[in-house]
Specification:
Structural class: mainly alpha
Radius of gyration: 28 Å
Order of helices and strands: HHEEHHH
Strand content: under 5%
Mean pLDDT: 80
Distance between the termini: 48 Å
Shape: elongated
Helix content: 55-70%
Number of helices: 5
Largest sheet: 2 strands, antiparallel
Oligomer: single chain
Low-confidence stretches: none
């Protein structure tokens, strides 16, 4: 447990900081660690920096926990199978069936047809191009920005597998619970 510094600690810190030529959080402290005084000041500066880092970490952890409990996104990236809607304080996760459909298609192409990640990526890009009425490959012959590159396809494959396994486990647990209630 981290204990907040007392006013006496802060006063001592400011005296030492001003004596060592510190300005705010920046220290221009040339220490000769052979002397007891410089070792003490260096240790004190390190302790305050460590305390400040720990307080910031605690605050970030508390905010992350609160957002998780409220079901709100912590950053700009939604977990697999979800998308973020809303702005600022009203942002939240909702299911993204389109992403799930693409994930299920990737699993089908990989497991049934044993296609490579590159081939699956090309297949999905062409399908998206047809859906969005655009060219999969630009007319001028360059490389388009790929929504589903082979690495992404590989990651989505494993995320969808994990998602399906969790759904299966949840359904099994519910069935067991129903049987236990009979």
């Amino acid at each position: 447990m981290i204990v907040a510094p007392t006013p006496a600690d802060i006063y001592t810190y400011t005296l030492l900081a001003s004596a060592s030529g510190a300005e705010g959080y920046r220290f221009d402290f040339k220490a000769d660690l052979a002397t007891a005084h410089d070792r003490f000041v260096a240790t004190l500066i390190a302790a305050v920096a460590e305390w400040e880092s720990a307080v910031t970490s605690e605050r970030c952890r508390e905010v992350a926990q609160r957002l998780k409990e409220e079901g709100r996104p912590r950053g700009n990236k939604a977990p697999y199978g979800k998308k973020i809607i809303g702005r600022k304080k009203t942002r939240r996760f909702v299911d993204d069936p389109e992403q799930r459909r693409v994930g299920q298609q990737i699993i089908r192409l990989r497991d049934e047809f044993r296609l490579s990640w590159e081939t699956i990526s090309d297949h999905i890009e062409e399908a998206l191009a047809r859906y969005e009425n655009r060219r999969a490959r630009p007319k001028w012959g360059g490389h388009p920005k790929r929504v589903y590159n082979p690495r992404h396809v590989h990651r989505v494959y494993h995320q969808e597998r994990k998602f399906q396994d969790e759904e299966r486990r949840r359904a099994d647990a519910e069935r067991k619970q129903e049987l236990a209630n009979l």
